Amino acid sequence: MEPIRVVTSRAVVLPDENIDTDRIIPARFLTTTQRDGLGEHCFRDRRYREDGTPDPEFVFNDPRARNASVLVAGRNFGCGSSREHAAWALYDLGVRVVISTELADIFRANASRNGILPIVLDPVSHARLLRRPWGVVEVDLEECTISTPGDAPATFEIDPFTRRCLLDGVDHLGYLLGHESEIEAFENRTDSFVHSEGSV
Amino acid sequence: MSPPRTMFDKIWDAHTVVPETPEAPAVLSIDLHLVHEVTSPQAFETLRQRGLAVRRPDRTLATMDHSTPTDPPDSVGVLRILDANAANQIERLASNCREHGITLHGLDSPHRGIVHVMGPELGATQPGMTVVCGDSHTSTHGAFGALAFGIGTSEVAQVLATQCLLQRRPRTMVIDISGELGFGVTAKDLILAIIAKIGVGGGTGCAVEYRGEAIRGLSMEGRMTVCNMSIEAGARAGMIAPDETTIEYVRGRPLAPMGETWEAAVDRWSGLPSDPEAAYDRVVELDAAEIGPMVTWGTNPGMASGVHEPIPDPGGDPSVERALEYMGLEPGGPMAGRAVDTVFIGSCTNARIEDLRAAAALLGDRSIAPGVRMLVVPGSQAVKRQAEEEGLAEVFVKAGCEWREPGCSMCIAMNGDRVEKGKLAVSTSNRNFEGRQGPGARTLLASPLMACASAIAGVVADPREFIAAPVGAMGGA
């Protein structure tokens, strides 16, 4: 996983609330067995009109979105299905930071395991970002700040473990495997009663 | 004396391998890992790349449900998969399970079904367990007094390799439902009313426990319907304390404990319910008697109201404006009376035997309205067999419904079963998101009773107008 420290980008603003993962990537694209190449399907039914041409009204079709890596979204972004394809698709589209006042739990976990920094921001600072589509923002994970020109930086809170993993590109599976001895001891201690149901 | 604990606390504590600290999440042990074809191939690939084995194949159970066809099998009994990618994904699950020694209920298994129907049916889901699956509706299994939640594919790989997950302890919420559900009002109406009250993000970060007289009165099928949709309120998990209803459901199922082990298990489960003085971070109260048949009018499950209530005015809320525009609805009038094109009875929310019994009882010898397409998709092969033995399938077929093979089907529209663009569907599934049932599809979430009533009437209809007298087991549907 690519470490994240400072991300400077224009902000893509998608103010809708409750954007679900079906909208981020419709289920008909989930028959893949790969993680990559899903960016072309990201927001598919919003990005393209019925005749297959891009809808110029949709933010990710704006030329300014091309190199943008910060997405400012409305409340409860990523709700619904647990599909990690949503995080893979956003990453493939170039998104490295998602900022909202509220992020769905599973999406937040999926994002942080795939090199996307999920930020839950206070409503006042978030509203300020919503008012400035395409404005340049600098997200600093070391300092936990979001800076916009002319304003005092906004600060955000993030789980220290998530932060450390994103800063250092730590792989969660590798970290878990490092607990092998505790896992084995737990299994030896508890299999007799917690797991007495036998094999499934 | 130790401080009073919630059921969640007890299960969490019993599965903590390494406690959480400010710097690191807990390592939590998983009892049952359910696997399906859509969210697992990349996880198995991770194992392959790193040369890792599946740590506990004995705690892992797989099936195929999302992208499997529901058309009847051909003359030699083979299901035809028309989509090459879906066929590849299904084959990948089969080969991954073979390679790692995981029990798979594949296309030819008499136990195959929607993963959240099959697990409980086999007795794999039991009280006190931690249950995970790469599927957000894993919350269903919480109906047994288990801690059950959906995970992403990276986490699927973690559980395959270590049988553990890194988890922060969620907050706790209790939703207390007093009173009894009225005639013709079901578990589905109850959970839609709960989501409408707390909102689609109302449960974010929380493990929710449902309790109260109305919950106690539900069958296991009804409890599964409630817990299933916990995720639609954003909750990490939904759970209900085990009681006699739970124990009677689990007893004798193929993977349930037997003999002395059974007695010991029942004894252990009796200690699971929350201690009377246990504290929750949030308490929500509802009166079941105030809930009527519910239906959604918008594009998330919280946009729901009673079938005779007016569609709300957006009042400048852009998300409501957009939802009504997508749905082709105007504020003001009720949902009752709107013309219906498609009716779907199925999904991990409402495709269990009791749902089909309630639906068939309402249908009786009536037919669905001309021009309405109605699919009935049993939740599993076991449900399908039972419905055929009980004569329910015959009722559906005579009424003009399509009686299909089990699977997720039109809930997620991955297998060819979908609602046409612009058509209005009354669906017993769990998500009315834009495009969920097909691009441009307009979904109304409702109970199996309302789905059947609407199919007969050809318009969204109140099921109470179609049932002669109170039916005893209605609460579960």
Task: Describe this entry's structure for a reader.
The complex is a heterodimer of chains A (about 200) and B (about 475). Chain A is α/β, with parallel strands linked by helices and about 200 residues long. Chain A has a single domain, classed as Aconitase, domain 4 (Alpha-Beta Barrel). Chain A has eight helices and seven strands. Chain A is globular, with a radius of gyration of 19 Å. The relative contact order of chain A is 0.17. The mean pLDDT of chain A is about 95. With about 475 residues, chain B is an alpha/beta fold. Chain B folds into three domains: about 190 residues, Aconitase, domain 3, CATH 3.30.499.10; about 90 residues, Aconitase, Domain 2 (3-Layer(aba) Sandwich); about 180 residues, Aconitase, domain 3 (2-Layer Sandwich), CATH 3.30.499. Helix content of chain B is about 30%, strand content about 15%. Chain B is built from 15 helices and 19 strands. In chain B, β3, α2 and β4 form a beta-alpha-beta unit. In chain B, α2 packs across α5 and α12 packs parallel to α15. The interface between A and B is large, with 59 and 84 residues.
For CATH, the homologous superfamily of the largest domain in chain B is named as Aconitase, domain 3
Number of domains of chain A: 1
Please outline the major beta sheet of chain B: 5 strands, parallel
CATH topology of chain A: Aconitase, domain 4
Distinct helical segment count of chain B: 15
> Which strand order spans the largest sheet of chain B, edge to edge or round the barrel?
5-4-3-6-7
Write a concise keyword list for the protein shown above.
heterodimer; A: 200 residues; alpha/beta; Aconitase, domain 4; seven-stranded mixed beta sheet; globular; B: 477 residues; Aconitase, domain 3; Aconitase, Domain 2; five-stranded parallel beta sheet; disordered C terminus
